[in-house]
Amino acid sequence: MKITILTLFPEMFAPLYGSIIGRAVNAGKLNIEVVNIRDYAENKHAKCDDYPFGGGAGMVMMPQPIGSAIKAVDPEHKARRIYLSPKGATFKQDKAFELLNYEHLVLLCGHYEGIDQRAIDLFIDEEISIGDYVLTGGELPAMVVCDCIARYVDGVISGESLVDESFGENGLEYPQYTRPAVYEGLSVPEVLLSGNHAEIDKWRRSESKKITQKNRPDLLGGKR
Ligand code: 4GY
What we know:
- By secondary structure, the protein is an alpha/beta fold.
- It is 31% helix and 18% strand.
- It contains seven helices and nine strands, in the order E-H-E-E-E-H-E-H-E-H-E-H-H-E-E-H.
- The chain has helices at 19-26, 63-73, 93-99, 117-123, 139-150, 159-163, 197-215; strands spanning 2-7, 31-36, 49-50, 60-61, 80-90, 104-109, 126-129, 182-183, 186-187.
- Strand 5, helix 3 and strand 6 (104-109) form a beta-alpha-beta unit.
- It is elongated.
- 4-amino-N-(cyclohexylmethyl)-1,2,5-oxadiazole-3-carboxamide (4GY) is lined by residues 84-86, 110-111, 114, 129-131, 133-135, 137-138, 141.
């Protein structure tokens, strides 16, 4: 899979190359391309933002550098083109699975007050938000989407780690413990040391239900 990130701040993506995602990249399973939108500005000072028509605070990203950058990285519109913005549909685990089916994703990061609407109308397939809060730019959201998808690219993490995790069929994940069996006077739940896998399963399912009911009743069809 290939993920192209379009941004005015390419240096913000350095952490992607270390970390677990870096492993997928180095193994050749994931190709991450970070492209500076400014390189596509067709004006003397490589200006990429201007004042908003109609007035108001801040600056708006101009459509030309964005349009030229998108056309350069995806000339035949084969990629799924995504704009990260608080106006988008909320990103959820099932969306990560859906996006995994595309061979090429283009993630467009906005800054300042946002981008000229015509760039969205002409070049974007869908708008995605990572949650109901406003950040200074789309770079962190793009990294969130990248990281979430990268986990499912073959070989990034073990398949077993993916089986019981949160947001699967059973809501949130059960608590985990490792050695020592007693830490600062707190013991690991007895059942986990019992070797009785049927009982362990039962305990984990019940703990999952408890934590989901407490923190995310909406996942169980209840009210928030
Ligand atoms: N939340 N989910 C988000 C965001 C910042 C103005 C456009 C979010 O995805 N993006 O807060 N983005 C804005 C800032 C320009 C991006």
